[in-house]
Target: Elongation factor G
Amino acid sequence: MADLSRVRNIGISAHIDSGKTTLTERMLFYCGRIHKIRDVKGGDGGATMDHMDLERERGITITSAATRVSWKNDTLKIPEHVVNIIDTPGHVDFTVEVERSLRVLDGAILVLCSVGGVQSQSLTVDRQMKRYGVPRIAFINKMDRTGANPDKVMAAMRDKLKTNAVPLQIPIGSESNFVGVVDLVRMEAVYTKGDEGEIIERTEIPDELKEKAETARMEMLEALSQFDDELMGTLLDEGEVDEKDIRRIIRSATLAQQITPVLMGSAFKNKTVQEALDAVTMYLPCPTDVEVFANDNSKDAELDEDGAPPRVKLTNDDKDPMVAMAFKTVVETFGQLTYMRIYQGQIKKGDSYVNARTGNSVRFGRLVRMHSNDREEIDVGEAGDIMAVVGVDCASGDTFLGDGVEYSLENIYVADPVIRLSIEPAKRDDADKLGKALERFRREDPTFRVLSDEETNQTLIAGMGQLHLDVYVERIKREYGCECIIGEPRVSYRERPTKSVEFNHKRAKQSGGSGQYGHVVGVMEPLPEDAENAFEFENEVTGGRIPREYIPACEKGFEEMMTKGPLGEFEIVGLKIRLQDGTFHDVDSSDMAFKLCAMEAMRESILPKCGMALLEPIMKLEIETPDEFQGGVTGHISSKRGLVSSSEVTDGSCIILAEVPLAEMFDYANEIRSMTQGKGTFSMEFLCYRQAPKNVQEEVLARRRKEKEELKK
Model:
């Protein structure tokens, strides 16, 4: 069994163009995993971790990529560590790649641009890290850029991310004169030398920085003393603080997510990247530092009062029954490639394991360790490891088990798509190619949906944004040789009740033989607008008025009626059913009778009376433009029913944050280029659903009615 204290499973996440793939490339080089540095947008084939042609052409990361490196530092007495690294996309349209990576990682590096600071996707990544309780360090990148301001970035971290940013370094030189950092733990100047920055030189702090460094060190120690009484006492007594104690406190506070240690450098200019690798080994958790729980679904497990199974802590021990999560799938010519994180036990080549979701036993015939798109054959994967299996048919989020356990791990959070469009092959003969492509991408990406429009018989694809769908259309063309005809983008509207409704509905059908009898009584309540769930069901029936075995059928009946609302047949959200009473018949009641009764109650008693309102998706928009165009851009946002939430000018560049309905944003890429002479850029992510203004609701529903009438002709 490997020494898990020397294993790190980390992700590198950031807003688009913050330099995370460049940082990963340098880490691979300094660890000896690659022998030539390739740049993301260079003419040498693109970065190692961007293995798709489309990624290398566009200079962006589209899919997460995994690799494994070794790192040690004799100067700092860091023994050799194994680091599994996953480089994730920065564009919001591919955020599920970040989501499923963070679900299985123990720690992360949050990369921030020294000029842009905390940007829109930084906030999203921060939210995802907090959702899964992932400790992180921050790396302020691009310190060589004009306008670099690490103090401002850390202030934004504290203000916008609500995180306790504690700098472990201060820069030596600024902007184009940035040459290194002062290590505040060891109180040494750190420079990188050599053609590729491969030589680390530690020397005395320059005289002109000594006073600033002493002040910064004291601020760091005071921040750390909030989490260690012994350190606070030492500071009060003006005693010397041992380097080992400082590192111990930084580590414990990081693991407890009380602080985010901050490092800085320039990955592109090969400056102080090795310091980030040191920090990964010293401050981020190993697998045994992280508590992971699974649900015990065995027959003799006692359910809690809500009917939920007990939670069991997993051990990270090779000798225990195997428990692993399939967190990413890629369909290939020779079978599916499934990325796995092993939480306990071992995966052995040739052995069979049970898929907890399907109950099927599956043989793992080929095990591999990934390095971007290259693979290395292995015979065994151990607890704490990240590896891949070839030829296993499963879904993202599935739990695999060895003999003797019936556990399941909490699944991955998947956001609903906000945009859809119709798709068909340009040539009728290519229909099979399109079908295969859509089925493959649907399996690989939980946020990519394939739907059928019942009215038009068209195939629809749905996703997280225009770029998301554009990339898949381009991949269908390249990888399957299938040109496609794409329809106009459509907004995914929702319907939401605004009033509570009491219901009392009875279904009694008798047509010879056994009949159908169901009777449900209760109340429907609108959920709060910020509720995460679209539908909630609460069983308040007492005294066996409806037998327990019929309750799930009632819930299913109510929920199945959520697919089409009464306004425009859009999906219904924000609805809670409280089932309070009812009656049953000894002979004529059944699961089907109660399910149909609940469906009728929704259709006849609830939906017509609940004051249904139309919801539209609102996007969070971030625009960067020369400040001379600020007025025109903000005015244009207002004309799109948008709301500017902030506008900040720095060194001639203006960053505007706004909230705008998605329906107004479909040609925005061309519009922003036109308004800013091609100098403006923007990023956009889904924020929330909000009730549409009355005039917008009327327009949308009128358009919907017209579409239906035309189909009837």
User: Anything to note?
Assistant: The chain is about 25% helix and 30% strand. The longest helix spans residues 207-225. The mean pLDDT is 89.
